[in-house]
Amino acid sequence: MTKNHESDVAFIKALAELLRENDLSELEVSREYGEDDALNVRVARQMVAAPVQHAVAAPAAAPAPAAAAAAPQEDPAQDPGAVTSPMVGTVYLSSEPGSAAFVSVGDTVAEGQTLLIVEAMKTMNQIPSPRAGKVTRILVEDGAPVEFGAPLVILG
Question: How far apart are CA 102 and CA 107, in angstroms?
Fold first, then answer.
């Protein structure tokens, strides 16, 4: 924080309220008070990715018991092999456009191996594999935005 600016606490509280009222995931502000005196604030909240539900119209001739027996959709975030995003940002599956992806479905990865990149605030953050395993699913597309905690890859 800055050199005893009492208004900074009220300012940060106001930013948090603004974040909540406008349903934002994060907000970043810089205040310059003079030479060697500034306040840089980043207020963020944890967003939990809700499973997407798709409504599908049943055919008119479909029997009711068959529809009742349909299995619920799985939530990839609940998969024990899910690797989730540690931040809000943009996902890149390769180091640069046109180059080969870091991993593909079916690849065997080692612990610490780069799975993909999440760009946040102009910084490229390599996302390492938390354990060794086989990539069974890639849940994001190259260049797609992601929220904190969103599932990216499933390791088997």
Answer: 10
Closest CA to 90 of 150, 23, 1, 22: 150
Do both 37 and 106 map to the same domain? no
**51 in a structural domain:** no
- Residues 93-129 have pLDDT tens digits of 999 988 999 999 999 999 999 999 999 988 999 999 9
Are residue 38 and residue 81 in the same domain, yes or no? Answer: no
- Which residues lie across from 138 on neighbouring strands? 153
**Residue 97 and residue 151 share a domain:** yes
Phi, psi of 96 (to 5 degrees): -155, 160
Predicted TM-score of the model (pTM): 0.53
In a domain, 61, yes or no: no
What residues make up the domain containing 29?
7-44
Q: Can you spell out the DSSP letters for 36-92?
A: TEEEEEEEE---PPPPP----PPPTT--HHHHHTPPPPP-GGGSTTEEE-SSSEEEE
Q: Which residues contact 88 (CB under 8 A, 6 or more apart)?
A: 25, 26, 44, 47, 120, 145, 146, 147, 148
